[in-house]
Design a protein that fits this description.
The chain is of the alpha/beta class and 191 residues long. The protein contains 9 helices and 5 strands; from the N terminus they run αβαβαβαβαβαααα. Strands 1-5-4-2-3 form a 5-stranded parallel sheet. Helix 5 (78-89) links the parallel strand 4 and strand 5 (95-98). Helix 7 runs antiparallel to helix 8 and helix 7 packs across helix 9 (168-174).
Length: 191
């Protein structure tokens, strides 16, 4: 625990990408915990990071070594801040987060590893699906005018998603088989 206390005293809760990079280069025994979802993790992560999605963090916290500092990582810092709070309520010490998330890490030009067959970003999948549904509704409305309702429905859903930051189509697509980790998938597994 002495190492953990030294780490906690030495660094603030938010680590800049350059600070994290320096700690990794010094061989600090950090646990990099990526709290994003599998699809995000597969498309880019800090080498050595472990996937523990935010929604599973409380249940899977037992997998983390309490004697080593934890650095939580997400896309921009919002979910990693929530992860830090969750781990603190579970009496973890020495919890840090990457300030600005993976976006800041990449902007700093630091290395990112990716799965070779990573699925498209969920936002891109939503745009494709929404566009195809609108085109389908418009095309069929030439034959059957009532089919235009599909285009109206999708447009309303997109406006709702924009206003509320909740996207049902995105949640549905995230559950599709191509967005799930394969069994025996190595470092990108949820296991």
């Amino acid at each position: 625990m002495g190492n953990l206390t030294n780490f906690t005293n030495k660094y603030k809760q938010n680590l800049a990408p350059s600070e994290l990079r320096a700690l990794l280069a010094q061989g600090e025994p950090l646990q990099l915990v990526d709290v994003r979802e599998h699809i995000e993790f597969a498309s880019g992560r800090i080498p050595g990071a472990r996937l523990v999605p935010l929604g599973e963090l409380q249940r899977r916290a037992v997998e983390l070594d309490r004697s080593r500092p934890v650095v939580c990582i997400c896309r921009s810092g919002k979910r990693s801040a929530q992860a830090v709070e969750k781990l603190a309520t579970l009496d973890f010490e020495g919890i840090q987060q990457l300030d600005g998330g993976l976006l800041a890490w990449e902007q700093a030009g630091f290395p990112v590893e990716k799965d070779q067959r990573a699925p498209w970003a969920l936002e891109r999948q939503v745009r494709l699906a929404a566009g195809l549904l609108v085109l389908t509704g418009l095309s069929f409305s030439l034959i059957w005018p009532a089919a235009i309702v599909l285009s109206w429905f999708v447009a309303t859903g997109l406006v709702f998603a924009g206003l509320t930051d909740w996207c049902g189509m995105g949640l549905l697509l995230a559950r599709m088989p191509w967005n799930r980790p394969a069994r025996g998938c190595g470092t990108s597994c949820r296991a």
